[in-house]
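Example 330.
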Amino acid sequence: MHYMKWIAGAIAGASMMVAATAASALTVGFAQTGHESDWRTAFSASMQSAAKAAGIDMKFSDADQKPENQVKAVHAFIAQRVDAIIIAPIVETGWDEVLKEAKDAKIPVFIVDRDVKVADRSPIVARIAADFHLEGKLAGAWLAQASQLGPWQAKHGSECNIVELQGTVGSSPAILRKKGFEDVMALFPYMHIVKSQSGDFTTTGGKEVMESFIKATDGLKGICAVWSHNDNMQLGAIQAMKEAGLHPGTDFLMVSVDGVPDEFKAMVAGEANASVELRSGIGPEIFAVIKGYLGGKHDYPKWVKIASTLHTQADAQHMIDWWAAQKKGG
Ligand code: AHR
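Predicted structure in complex with alpha-L-arabinofuranose:
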């Protein structure tokens, strides 16, 4: 009997411990932009698996590229009293009120990827993100050189007329990649952007915009390069060019940002030339900062920078192999 009592007590104690552990597990809310690109999907997957590995309960909201959905999701996370809020903002503006609300509720906010423009940044512990301005500069610097190589000069002369596919209007990568690219262009007077339009970071958007560029320029006459703020729009542009009987990668230099597998495949096929890699597997870095902060480490820099690197046809196959190894967990 005494023995039975001891077992019952042990079971009760163990279940109390489980309840206590569950109660003390961290809960964070992640207000994600949407699923507009291959990069975004890979980033969401990295966040999901990093949250799991960190033992954090992550509430995930996909705003489908609609800023109002995203603000609503953050309001809901505040009402649920999560331990921290992560926002990957669609656009830079419209955040003042809800961030103040998070601050009043004493919920720390972490900005990932894109940035916000707010009067008071004090609710934000840190932003963990790449340098979009640098990405634009890397793309511009590559094009400044590539367009002056013999074969391209023979095709287009020394002037390089560029068509630009912009990302979502009002988003920090669209603003800063454009600015970085133009800052490099200012150093090389032979580079000119002759057409520029938003394709909203999607394959369909990039295809539609390119179709209109092709029409407006009588088959891209006088154009030497296509600069796209992300790979998916570039992949859409490639489709439109091929359908119009044009030869991207051979007759037009194609440079973009993200470094997703399909873009590397396009490079291997000779239809794209360069892409600046925006790392998508940054979930572990993000959760290391959040866990550290919630555990008492409060001296993180306001901007935890993620490096970006440029890839070309020279290492495209290597990058395809690298992605395949990641998928296998290698
Ligand atoms: O904010 C980063 C950008 O958003 C990526 O370059 C693009 O693919 C995504 O949609």
